[in-house]
Amino acid sequence: MEKTKKEQAATTTTIRDARDDFAAIQESMTNNEYAACYEQERVPLVKFLVYQGASPQDAFDAAHQAFVEAWRRWEQIQNPKAWLRIVAVRALKSAAQPTVPMPDRYDFADSAPTGMQLSEETMDLMTALRRLPPLQREIMAWTVDGFGPSEIAKQLGMSGEAVRQALHRARQNLKRLLFPEEGGRA
């Protein structure tokens, strides 16, 4: 039985509507995944950047830039947590250098821009991290954020041995900085 032009048009419209619905569902899922990632990673990403020596406002700005870029490329991102950190660090490094020297300690009493509430211990850790050499500070920030040496090596384009060595030195330096009265022994 041959379909009339009206029936064929209705079938074509139904198929087109189904494709549009599917595309809308996919977009909605993508939007929901992005929104969930944003909620889950926003504050940890800002902390990660502060651990690397950024001011809270600079960290917030770099994290924002990373999330904007993530939105544009969401479908292509395989590991959002790591990808966001790489892009945010790049944004932070490409920002204009501050004209005012970086303080040893930031006052987090006004945490509105970053949403961060920090304990005294965390602020002590951040102060100690600022005193580490840049590579050690960067690797410790990745470690504190839950990444292992092999994953850090992959993200930073380093050998696993180089990361483990820098991590070992960073831990020794942090012990010395955080526990000077004990000779660096925790």
Describe it for me?
With 186 residues, the protein is mainly α. Helices cover 69% and strands 0% of the residues. Mean pLDDT is 79; it is low at 21-26 and 108-113. The chain contains seven helices and no strands. The radius of gyration is 23 Å and the shape is elongated. It starts with a helix and ends in an 8-residue tail after the last helix. Helix 1 runs antiparallel to helix 2 and helix 1 packs across helix 3 (80-94). The protein has helices spanning 5-51, 56-73, 80-94, 120-130, 134-144, 149-156, 160-178.
- The percent range for strand residues is under 5%
Rg is 23 Å
Strand count: 0
User: How confident is the prediction overall: mean pLDDT?
Assistant: 79
- What proportion of the residues is helical, as a percent range? 55-70%
- Pattern of helices and strands: HHHHHHH
Shape: elongated
- Number of distinct helices: 7
Structural class: mainly alpha
Short synopsis of the structure:
This protein is mainly alpha-helical. It is built from 7 helices and no strands. It has helices spanning 5-51, 56-73, 80-94, 120-130, 134-144, 149-156, 160-178.
What key phrases describe this protein's structure?
single chain, 186 residues, mainly alpha, 7 helices
Question: What is the secondary structure topology, with strand pairs?
Answer:
Layout: H1 5-51, H2 56-73, H3 80-94, H4 120-130, H5 134-144, H6 149-156, H7 160-178
Helix pairs in contact: 1-2, 1-3, 2-3, 5-7, 6-7
